[in-house]
Amino acid sequence: MYFTVKGKNLNTDVDMKDRLVFWGKKDDAQKVLITIDLNEDEGSYEVKIMKAENVSEEFDNLVRNQWRNGSDDVVFPEISENFEKELSLTNALLPKEYEVERDDLIKMAQAEWNFLVLSKRLKNTYSHELNELEETIEQLEEFSQDTWNNMKNFWNKVQQQIREKNLARRHGNDIRKRTNELFSNLKELRSKAEESFSKESEKNKAFFEEKLDDIKSKIEDGKSLRHLFEELKQVQKKFKKSNFTKKDQSSIWNKLDGLFKEIKEKKYGKASAGNSPLDKTKRRLDGLKSAIERMEKSISRDKSNLGFQESKIQNADGQLEAQIRKAKLSMIEERIKSKETKLEDMLNTEVQLKKRIVSLEKQEEIDKKEAERKAAEEAVKNRIANEIKESHLEFKSNPKVQKAAEKIGSSKKAKTDNSESKAENAAKIISGVVKASAPNP
Fold first, then answer.
1. Which of 14, 177, 232, 332 is deepest in the core (most CB within 10 A)?
2. Could you read off the pLDDT of 287-316 as tens digits, one per residue?
3. Is residue 70 over pLDDT 60?
4. Is the pLDDT of residue 3 over 70?
5. CB-based contact 133:180 (threshold 8 Å)
6. 95 φ, ψ to 5°?
7. 0.70 exceeded by the pTM?
8. Angle at Cα 84 formed by Cα 79 and Cα 90, nearest 5°?
9. Which percentage of the chain shows pLDDT scores above 90?
């Protein structure tokens, strides 16, 4: 976002003059030269009246071309009348006995000057805010994103006033100039910080790539997945506390996340990797913890700002500044209350998620044991089926087994013990077949 303010973005109204010069008459008779000088800081103006016979053509030119444009080097001739009055929208600039050639210009100037005075007061309010920002920036030893954001918010507010033409062009220009200087100072600090940050990120990236490559090699070598998973969790903790550029952070995170999924796939199968209720709840808890940390830092900054504003009220320069600072205090206090309410909700949610994770971990352990039991049963069934299949093939291919089976078949007519079950008979048959097929000693 671009914050250097170009002149064309400011109020495009014609620059108003603080000084006016008119020829006029006093009591419809005496010709006089009248000068009016606005004091926008005080909201007043000074009038000087000179008789026509005391005004030379040279002075007339000087007062119009130099004095009216801000020069104080013009020496005035004898002044017949001099007075100062408070500016008002309702009272005329000149007493009734004076009449000027361009009364419309006088009335226009009166309206414009009232706007200038109010605009100056608004500018002074913003100047106080700029003073605070300037103090903060002067004390910075490194770039501060919070201060940058405060500068952005300040300038957005001033721009709104400029767009709505609540600030005169001269006042907007003054604020723009000071604002640009502060942005330039912050940009210089940011440039240094980015260079240092980039080097730190590059170093951290190399460190974590080596760690993750080592873990990947261990996975491929068939090392204990449980231990590797715990090792990955430790790497993840360090990762969250390390500084990266967005590009480096994304690169390391993709590798880290990929290894987590690879371990889970090897351990539980693809369907379970990262999609179980437990995994989703853990991810939600991790996100919530980050949000809680950010909220706590935000509240801490607001409380620090609150203390700063309270100390400034004691040394406020005038009632207007004190009122502005009290209003800011109220805003900060309400903001803190709102954030603390949100934080309380977040902390309650954190407790609920932790309880849910404990419950899901227990259920996952139960499900895991059940899956292992079913897998063991299935393995036994498959083994028995294979043994029966192998026995059947051996029966077909071994003549001795076939002869033994024929003998068994011919003896079926013999009486058997009524207490023997079909299962016992089958066991005897199989036993006889096995013995018959065994090689002679």
1. 232
2. 899 899 999 999 998 888 888 877 777 776
3. yes
4. no
5. no
6. -60, 160
7. no
8. 125
9. 33
| Residue length of the chain | 441
Residue 323 CB partners (closer than 8 Å, separation 6+)? none
Spans of all domains in the chain = 19-118, 120-194, 225-275
Question: Which of the pair, 437 or 411, is modelled with greater confidence?
Answer: 411
Place of tokens 């590797």: 228
Amino acid identity of residue 422, one-letter, is: K
Residue type at position 82:
N
Calculate the alpha carbon distances from 109 to 21, 23, 321 in Å. 11, 16, 29
Q: What mean pLDDT do residues 170-193 have?
A: 91
Q: How confident is the model at residue 404 (pLDDT cuts 50, 70, 90)?
A: low
Give the whole-angstrom CA distance, residue 144 versus residue 146.
5
Quote the pLDDT of residue 398.
63
Q: What are phi and psi of 261, to 5 degrees?
A: -65, -40
Q: CA-CA distance, 188 to 142, in Å (whole number)?
A: 10
Predicted pLDDT of residue 401: 58
Contact 22, 107 (CB under 8 A): no
Of residues 51, 48, 56, the one with CA closest to residue 29? 51
| Sheet of 98-100, strands arranged across | 81-86, 44-51, 30-39, 19-26, 98-100
Decide: 47 and 35 in contact? Cβ < 8 Å. Answer: yes
Exposure class string for 394-412: b at 16+ Cβ within 10 A, else e: eeeeeeebeebeeeeeeee
Residues 6+ positions from 84 with CB-CB distance below 8 Å: 44, 45, 46, 47
Helix (H, G, I), strand (E, B) or coil at 34: strand
CA–CA separation, 159 and 34 (whole Å): 38
- The token pair at 145 is 């994103």
Q: What is the largest CA-CA distance in the chain?
A: 162
Using CA atoms, how far apart are residues 192 and 171, in angstroms rounded to an integer?
Answer: 32
